[in-house]
Structures are given as structure tokens and as C-alpha cells.
């Protein structure tokens, strides 16, 4: 089953730098899903058991597993 992640780019990242982060994900076998407007970020889906280095990209602030969030 594929793994989905939310990638948040640094607040001062330019559109070109965000695109560079997306290309970095694609180069590692990821498929871009949703692209977000409220934050500088995107969803990326990787095949199961792949290793990626998105956290180390110079324009990426955070990478977290995409999951359902609920409020009580």
C-alpha cells in the first residue's frame, strides 16, 4: 500500500523553490497529489517500502505522514 506524506516548505520559499522540492520528491519515485495554497506545501505519495530524503531538502521545513485528524 502506498505511503502518503504532507511536505511543508519553508515560509520564505519562493514558488521556484517549492517546485524544486516537488521535483526532488518526483526524482525519488514520488507522485504529487494535492497542492496546498494556505501553506507552502504538497502531498506526495510513495510506493510502499521506498526510502526518501525529503527531510534533507534545503527548502523543506517538515515532512509528516498523511493521516486523518479528528476533533472531539
From TrEMBL:
One of the GO BP terms on file: vacuole fusion, non-autophagic
Molecular function via GO: endopeptidase inhibitor activity
Span of domain Inhibitor I9: 4-72
Leader sequence residues: none
Gene3D superfamilies, per database record: Peptidase S8 propeptide/proteinase inhibitor I9
SUPFAM superfamilies: Protease propeptides/inhibitors (SSF54897)
Family: Belongs to the protease inhibitor I9 family.
PANTHER family membership: PROTEASE B INHIBITOR 2 (PTHR28288)
Name of the featured protein: Inhibitor I9 domain-containing protein
Organism: Thermothelomyces thermophilus (strain ATCC 42464 / BCRC 31852 / DSM 1799)
Amino acid at each position: 500500500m502506498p505511503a502518503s506524506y504532507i511536505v511543508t516548505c519553508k515560509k520564505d520559499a519562493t514558488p521556484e523553490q517549492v517546485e524544486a522540492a516537488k521535483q526532488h520528491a518526483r526524482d525519488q519515485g514520488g507522485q504529487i497529489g494535492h497542492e496546498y495554497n494556505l501553506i507552502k506545501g504538497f502531498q506526495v505519495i510513495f510506493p510502499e517500502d521506498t526510502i526518501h530524503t525529503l527531510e534533507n531538502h534545503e527548502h523543506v521545513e517538515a515532512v509528516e505522514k498523511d493521516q486523518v485528524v479528528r476533533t472531539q
